[in-house]
Specification:
Pfam families: Peptidase_S10 (PF00450). InterPro entries: AB_hydrolase_fold (IPR029058), Peptidase_S10 (IPR001563), Ser_caboxypep_his_AS (IPR033124). Keywords: Carboxypeptidase, Glycoprotein, Hydrolase, Protease. Belongs to the peptidase S10 family. The longest helix has 13 residues, at about 15-30. By secondary structure, the protein is α+β, with helices and mostly antiparallel strands. It is built from eight helices and four strands, in the order αααααβαβββαα. A four-stranded mixed sheet has the order 1-4-3-2. The chain is globular and about 60 Å long. The protein folds into two domains: about 15-85, no CATH class; about 90-190, Rossmann fold.
């Protein structure tokens, strides 16, 4: 599920995304892939009905210059999914290349996203064997959102050597900017500008 606490109003017409995510999760914990009807798995709760309705409106299609000869928009294509062949199962080499080039990296997760969850990303970053920065090993140190309601814990952070930061966003699911827009803005602004993640945005 994309958000552990979100209400599920809609099941997508395609089952491929559910099947793909289940395969990845089973692989991550060392379980074999199982063959079954993906429709029997738990819904993703992506709330894609509004997106489907909007992108298939005639006025929106016209504004986007989509020819009327093309079919209706759908989030996942069964045709593509059936024929897609996975060639890369991890991005360790790509991360190592970026780290060697001195490129700043921010990896973040909503902490109630069970599909692409923070534990898996933390395990991935640990596998890179990077040094944790700080006077002591600071793992899961709180960062704070400084908004109109005062300072609140926005999530937790771990900083690694090589310009790699890992943050969680408290109470957010898969779509972090949608679930926590203010916290997301502060997080990304401070990342870009090399500021402390708890630094409030300038008004």
């Amino acid at each position: 599920m994309y958000n552990l606490y979100d209400a599920c109003y809609y099941d997508p017409t395609t089952n491929l995304k559910k099947a793909f995510i289940e395969r990845q999760m089973r692989k991550a914990v060392g379980l074999p892939e199982r063959r079954h009807n993906a429709a029997t798995t738990a819904p993703l709760c992506a709330q894609t009905n509004n997106t489907n309705a909007y992108l298939n409106r005639a006025d929106v299609r016209k504004s986007l210059h989509i020819p009327s000869s093309l079919p209706a928009w759908q989030e996942c294509s069964d045709e593509v999914g059936k024929n897609y062949v996975v060639t890369h199962f991890d991005v360790i080499a790509e991360f190592q290349t970026m780290i060697a080039a001195g490129i700043k990296i921010l990896v973040y997760n909503g902490d109630v996203d069970t599909a692409c969850n923070s534990i898996m990303n933390q395990q991935f970053l640990t596998s890179l064997n990077l040094t944790v920065l700080g006077e002591q090993e600071k793992v899961n140190e709180a960062w704070h959102y400084s908004g109109q309601t005062g300072t609140a814990v926005a999530g937790f952070q771990t900083k690694f050597a090589g310009n790699v930061d890992f943050l969680t966003v408290r109470g957010s699911g898969h779509f972090v900017p949608e679930d926590k827009p203010r916290e997301s803005q502060q997080m990304i602004y401070n990342f870009i500008n090399n500021l402390d993640y708890s630094a409030p945005l300038k008004k």
